[in-house]
Design a protein that fits this description.
The chain is α+β, with helices and mostly antiparallel strands and 178 residues long. 19% of the residues lie in helices and 37% in strands. It has 2 helices and 13 strands. A 4-stranded antiparallel β-sheet has the order 11-12-7-13. Strands 1-6-5 form a 3-stranded antiparallel β-sheet, with helices on one face. The chain has a 3-stranded antiparallel β-sheet with strand order 2-3-4, with helices on one face.
Length: 178
Amino acid sequence: MSRIGRLPISIPAGVTVSVDGSAVSVKGPKGELVLNVASPIEVSVEDNQVVVSRPDDERESRSLHGLTRTLIHNDIIGVTEGYSKGLEVVGTGYRVAQKGTSVEFALGFSHPVIVEAPAGITLTVEGNNKLTVTGISKQAVGEAAANIRKIRKPEPYKGKGVRYAGEVVRRKAGKAGK
């Protein structure tokens, strides 16, 4: 039995979980998320807890059991607390500025790079080199942060670029002097 999958998920106050066939809907103070559960996995709400079960020990059922439980748990955390991911812009002349709901980056290109916030995601700028991506969906927050980081990844020689907060960039030695 899956160690993670068999754990019941307690539903905090202010959150409602409803199961309609294969769709699990989680409503909370920050919003609503809907998860479509894969076919062999069954989800039920019992005694203010969400229970995820599998019908058999087939390979696919075993692999989806813990995953489904974790996705539902992430949705419950998202609608109560939300998720955030920090990004840092490192480099001489590199900066970020808020332009309404979008964000403008100066990253050494010949033009400024403007990033629009995806639906359900909020981009906030602190200072001129820190950016925070927040939202209720863990997957959407991570994807938005990864797409922003992809604009200019940290390079290994000077470490310039967009990196996650707390990310350690492995540095290379570069050319040896004479």
